[in-house]
Amino acid sequence: MSIRSELFDGLKTIPGVGMVVSEWPKTFTTLPLICFQISDRAPLKNFTYDQESEVKVLINLWGVDKVGVSELALQVSAKMAQLGYRRTMEMDNSSLEKELKRIDMRFLSHK
User: Fold this and answer.
1) What residues pair up with 86 in beta bridges, in sequence order?
2) 3-state secondary structure of 100
3) Which among 85, 87, 24, 6 has a CA at the least distance from the CA of 60?
4) Domain covering 3-110, topology
5) pLDDT band at residue 49 using 50, 70 and 90 as cut-offs
6) Is the pLDDT of residue 106 over 90?
7) What is the SS3 assignment for 74?
8) Are the beta carbons of 61 and 18 closer than 8 angstroms?
């Protein structure tokens, strides 16, 4: 299974998620929304294995209220941990005057 498929299949199992996409959506009509991108996949040399990759994933969460997006962030962190990823960053990018609320997250794994 590809990394993209693994992420998509895992994230879409989170209850209450309206949409999971791997490209920036054209519209934000189905919320809450999870947008993920594999931001880097660099090969590593390892003494135990012939080769593995360091995989970096960027996830943007979108919703209509701050509490809902924050709760979704907790669920995403748990799901990504289950898939073997460690969260390296979480940042609230919501602004008070905008209707949509957003949290950006980064994850790292060796695959």
Assistant:
1) 108
2) coil
3) 24
4) STM4215-like (3.30.2000)
5) low
6) yes
7) helix
8) no
* Least confident span in 12-16, 22-26, 46-50, 68-72: 46-50
The number of helices, as runs of H, and strands, as runs of E, in the chain is: 2, 5
CA separation for the pair 53, 56 (Å, rounded): 10
Q: Where are the domains of the chain?
A: 3-110
Q: How far apart are CA 2 and CA 80, in angstroms?
A: 15
Contacts of 16 (CB under 8 A, 6+ apart): 32, 72
CA pair distance 39, 94, nearest whole angstrom: 22
pLDDT reading at 97 higher than 80: no
